[in-house]
Amino acid sequence: MHQQAADAQRAEGTEETPVPDWKPLSDDELRSYRANGYLHLRGLFDAGAVERGREILRTAQERATPTIEHHESFTDRAHTLRVRDAIAHHPELAEFLDHPGLIGPLASVLGMSVQVLGTEIFIRGLHEEPLESWHTDGGEYLQRVRLSGASSDLQVKAQVFLSDTSEDDSGNFLMIPGSHHRMPRKTVPNCYIEELNGPFERGELPSDAVTVRAAPGDVLLFPYSLWHAVARNTRQPRQTFIFRYGQLWHRPHDYLQQPPEVLARMSPRLRRMFGDFGDDPHPTDFYKPPAQQRVMAQGASAGGR
Ligand SMILES: O=C(O)CCC(=O)C(=O)O
Q: How many separate domains does the chain show?
């Protein structure tokens, strides 16, 4: 157990703080994440969870779940169905967001200040060209922030794979390990990385690019600053969820505040992770969250209701 998580578990005393239902990353896993800018967590969700995840996707397609209002920065395209703020319409996503196997890695890379900043359903259809160009996440101002080696992270995404991308040309996630420490030569408002995208359009990949081959149930964790793109898809619709996380003192990406009826269905841990501090929050709560170790210890599956 690395030092930060060990401190976290001691901090509030054993009487009050239940035994966490999650385990932090090992020192080696955390070192690897910080050096390479990603963690491929294989088989985090079992076959039953994957099937329930696919059911959420089917329901979203059948009901044509609405997404949020368009923003001028969105680059949504016809080949991709993208439902932003999906938790507001699909409460079953709580099973994935509150899963101990995901909470542990998040608590390790962010510290215990974990907030869900966005929940997206993604279905990437068939397309002969790359589905997304090289970019970083979170907009031009976050793009210019680079963290030193031992820093806690600021914002991360967890991509939950529900269909198979273990072969090439299946809408694979592409990334450059270690690129989260580098600044693109030129930074532009849409965060595209121009030095790579000209060659990419001609079919060239950087020599240090890695193609992620993921099986259903795998999760890829990566920070906002990792240079990434998406390969073409000539096989089958690619099904994933993408969850954004950040510090509790960040602003969400796809909601302002979850409505009371959405929060009411969640465990106290998940409500806290949606930035909920009850009816009468103090402004300082977001920076110094009360009883944070205790609230984060257990979710719905451990009876933390
Ligand atoms: O679809 C993917 O694999 C990645 C999506 C992406 O580039 C993003 O969420 O920023």
A: 1
